[in-house]
Amino acid sequence: SEGATAQNPLPLENLRLLLADDSADNRLLITRLLGKAGAVVDTAANGRDAYDMALESDYAAVLMDIQMPEMDGYEATKLLRSAHYKKPIIALTAHAMAEDHARSLEAGCSAHLTKPISRVDLISTILRLVDRT
Fold this sequence. Notes:
Blueprint: E1 16-20, H1 24-36, E2 40-44, H2 47-56, E3 61-65, H3 73-82, E4 89-93, H4 98-107, E5 111-114, H5 119-129
Parallel strand pairs: 1-2, 1-3, 3-4, 4-5
């Protein structure tokens, strides 16, 4: 598979991740991409479900779309952080402006990736932020 190396064909092996995105196509695409890297991915279609799922399960990281119905990614992230949620939250957004990046970090996101998401960037960001111990 692309991006895999002989030393590490499954860089995300056994990592449980939560993906929150209101687009079914995006959920399918990103879940498939992460699954090929060895991750186990649960999905939420809005920020409210993502908030509940993140607190109920032990995910290595949350991948959070910013524009979602019911509760957007900024609000879900702020609520998770105010509930003392310590795991990495990675913003996934079509918004590429510097102020969008700053707003994600202010909300409590650990990183900000712009769509379309690059497989290499996504995997390297997850690996950089996740504690594998």
